């Protein structure tokens, strides 16, 4: 059964979960369980397009990334793929830190870092209560993580707090495509095929049915643009990529 979208929620609320604390615990536990198959499934279920999306974000911020005096924070970094895309775009450039609140993800990110020349620090941190000082970063990114926060407003406040004045935010997220035919095909894939495949391979069906349902409940791109601007960012804009299945929101700390 498909429930109606509940956009306007203060943050993610997985099925059967009422409050913020429970939502965060649920998300943490879920990502801990799928961490061993996370990379494989990401690439398989997106037919490797996820790699292009991350590379495109890195290219967009090439100037910041290439400057060795800058500091970049990749929030909700998971196994580190956006942080690695940043490093590939700028070997020897910015200092890059990846942060996530699931140790099982960080173990994998660190192993990938150790097996490469990437030099990225991965730290355990909750995006809603970051351990970093104010105004330390030139760029804060978040790929496919923001939607999972239990409180979007607080997530944005924390991003803003740790950014230097003029620093940039980049949020890459899934969205529901608008095109009639492509939209219908994609929804069928996303709501019916992906949860089954993801469930089979990861052994966690719940996590892969959470994915489409969390995208359905997430603010649409225009609503998210407004939320980001209301949080005190300037020059906020977004782009739809790949027929609108992902969006990149960007802005600067005013
Ligand atoms: C879908 S994964 C995305 C991982 C990675 N950014 C990528 O592009 O593949 C979402 C990640 O967000 C992390 N996450 C969710 N809520 C978080 C929070 N409050 N603080 C830190 N990490 C969080 C999860 O642990 C998970 O690793």
Structure annotation, total helices? 10
- Shape call: globular
| C-alpha Rg (nearest Å) | 17 Å
Instruction: List ligands, each type once.
Output: S-adenosylmethionine
Oligomer: single chain
Write structural notes for this entry.
- By secondary structure, the protein is an alpha/beta fold.
- It has ten helices and seven strands.
- It has helices spanning 20-34, 38-45, 49-60, 62-66, 81-89, 103-114, 152-162, 180-202, 205-217, 221-230; strands spanning 71-75, 95-100, 121-124, 137-143, 163-174, 233-241, 246-253.
- β4, α7 (152-162) and β5 form a beta-alpha-beta unit.
- The longest helix is centred in the C-terminal third of the chain and has 23 residues, at 180-202.
- The mean pLDDT is 94.
- S-adenosylmethionine (SAM) is lined by residues 24, 27, 31, 42, 76-78, 81-82, 100-102, 105, 126-128, 143-145, 148-149.
